[in-house]
């Protein structure tokens, strides 16, 4: 491998990380909204969300990316590879995040909500001041775990023509006729990205621990 | 739109062939991964430090690598070391190697939470070595793991879709083929998604049935 090859692998890493981060930034709040719809028991919408989560959790990311990229133009919505990749990452992770948020919400003690209502808080205020500050700390480990799983399934977006770490490694291997070195370098890069996410989680937890005395 | 679904319906034999390939690939991969995970779990739990370190290294490495990258390493990388696969055996080999590590970690978790007294009782009845492992340790560990193994099987089904990239004719590959031949992307991929969903529901139902049986015979 030449210096140029390392640079193209790093460019692939930048693509993997940035697209995944955008997918996460969209998927985490969308997941929370979906979980809230189910938690608050909105009649028809709750069922629809349950169906969405069930189907999306069973859909391979490769198949989803192909569906979004090829089928949307077919029904009259033109889409470029990058938005298609972001959309499929976000749709996929939102379904898993919904379940993580929902678990935290279902375990949330009702008595606290009753107390908030008794103290005259509106639903919105009670959510911002009472519910959310507690559930995000409970959900954090699950959410970070899901983020690392998303990073590991992100090579799927190569099927719509995006050059991520894995795709860059395949290209270098095809050009140099020596596929193993770029694959091993790619493995190291994924390891570092996953480790990065876990580090950030630990940092947030220990910060919380210092600030509030519990994580 | 109905015309599109009609085209996919006319080629349902290809889609079902892809589904059949996905099913047997995943079932075989699950069984082989569990079989290989057994000895790896023993190594993870053994008192021998170098053995434990090797097993831990393998499991951790697999848990950091994306599945597609491993499939590429097996399919394109290993031939340069003189090990050659066709796309089927490369796909199966990658699925088995990858998931053996996850299965080993699942079994290790259940083994670690097995009550000490249970194993002591086995010793007291004169069980040791392989017989202790097969008769005393493995049965409760596997039964405790059934739901998690079911989850892992769903993961295997979803990972198997990556094998379309190395041209294994599984479900996603066949859906892609139909869509590229007749330009019916929406219908073809929606049909594939529906079949994946059905497959995952079947696994969930089977897991629930096994769990109920385990409750009943306990």
Q: What's this, in brief?
A:
With 215 residues, chain A is mostly helical.
Q: Can you give a write-up of this model?
A:
The complex is a heterodimer of chains A (215) and B (218). With 215 residues, chain A is mainly alpha-helical. Chain A has one domain: Orthogonal Bundle (MetI-like fold). Chain A has helices at residues 3-39, 43-58, 61-74, 81-106, 110-118, 123-153, 165-176, 180-212. Chain A is flat and about 70 Å long. Chain A starts with a helix and ends with a helix. Chain B has 218 residues and is mainly alpha-helical. Chain B has one domain: MetI-like fold (Orthogonal Bundle), CATH 1.10.3720.10. Helices cover 83% and strands 0% of the residues of chain B. Chain B has helices at residues 2-10, 12-45, 49-64, 67-77, 87-112, 116-124, 129-160, 171-182, 185-217. Chain A binds chain B through residues 54-55, 57-64, 66-67, 70-71, 74-75, 151-156, 158-159, 165-166, 169-170, 173, 177-180, 183, 186-187, 190-191, 194, and chain B through 61, 64-69, 72-73, 76-77, 80-81, 154, 157-162, 164-165, 171-172, 175-176, 179, 183-186, 189-190, 192-193, 196-197, 199-201.
Overall domain count of chain A = 1
Shape-level CATH architecture of chain A: Orthogonal Bundle
CATH-derived architecture of chain B: Orthogonal Bundle
* CATH superfamily label of chain A: MetI-like
- The overall average pLDDT of chain B, rounded, is 90
What is the helix tally of chain B? 9
**Total number of strands of chain B:** 0
Which CATH class of chain B applies here? Mainly Alpha
Amino-to-carboxy terminus distance of chain A: 45 Å
- Overall geometric form of chain A: flat
- CATH topology name of chain B, in short, is MetI-like fold
List the secondary-structure elements of chain B in sequence, H or E: HHHHHHHHH
Form type of chain B: flat
N- and C-termini, Cα separation of chain B: 52 Å
- Count of beta strands of chain A: 0
List the helices and strands of chain A in order: HHHHHHHH
């Amino acid at each position: 491998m030449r210096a140029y090859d390392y640079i193209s692998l790093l460019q692939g890493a930048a693509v993997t990380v940035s697209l995944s981060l955008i997918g996460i930034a969209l998927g985490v709040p969308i997941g929370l909204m979906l979980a809230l719809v189910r938690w608050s028991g909105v009649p028809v919408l709750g069922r629809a969300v349950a169906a969405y989560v069930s189907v999306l959790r069973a859909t391979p990311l490769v198949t989803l990316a192909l569906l979004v990229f090829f089928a949307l133009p077919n029904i009259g919505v033109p889409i470029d590879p990058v938005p298609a990749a972001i959309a499929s990452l976000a749709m996929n992770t939102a379904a898993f995040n919904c379940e993580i948020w929902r678990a935290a919400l279902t375990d949330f003690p009702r008595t606290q909500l009753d107390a908030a209502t008794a103290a005259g808080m509106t639903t919105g205020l009670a959510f911002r001041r009472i519910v959310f500050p507690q559930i995000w700390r409970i959900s954090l480990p699950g959410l970070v775990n899901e983020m690392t799983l998303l990073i590991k399934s992100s090579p799927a977006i190569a099927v719509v023509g995006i050059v991520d770490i894995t795709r860059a490694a395949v290209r270098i291997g095809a050009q140099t006729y020596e596929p193993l070195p770029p694959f091993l370098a790619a493995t190291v890069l994924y390891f570092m990205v996953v480790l990065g996410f876990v580090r950030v989680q630990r940092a947030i937890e220990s910060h919380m621990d210092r600030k509030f005395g519990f994580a | 739109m109905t015309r599109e679904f009609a085209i996919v319906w006319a080629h349902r034999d290809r889609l079902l062939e892809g589904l059949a390939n996905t099913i047997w690939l995943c079932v075989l991969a699950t069984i082989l991964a569990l079989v290989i995970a057994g000895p790896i779990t023993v190594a993870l739990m053994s008192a021998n430090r170098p053995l434990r370190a090797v097993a831990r290294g393998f499991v951790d490495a697999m848990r950091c690598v994306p599945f597609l990258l491993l499939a590429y390493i097996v399919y394109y990388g290993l031939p340069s070391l003189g090990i050659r696969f066709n796309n089927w055996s490369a796909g199966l080999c990658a699925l088995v190697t990858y998931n053996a590590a996850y299965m080993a970690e699942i079994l290790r978790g259940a083994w670690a939470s097995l009550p000490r007294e249970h194993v002591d009782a086995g010793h007291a009845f004169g069980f040791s070595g392989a017989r202790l492992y097969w008769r005393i340790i493995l049965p409760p560990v596997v039964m405790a793991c059934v739901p998690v193994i079911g989850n892992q099987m769903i993961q295997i089904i979803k990972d198997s879709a990556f094998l379309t990239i190395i041209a294994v004719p599984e479900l996603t590959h066949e859906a892609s083929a139909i869509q590229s031949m007749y330009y019916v992307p929406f219908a073809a991929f929606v049909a594939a998604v529906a079949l994946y969903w059905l497959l995952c529901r079947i696994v969930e139902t089977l897991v629930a049935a096994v769990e109920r049986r385990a409750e009943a015979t306990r």
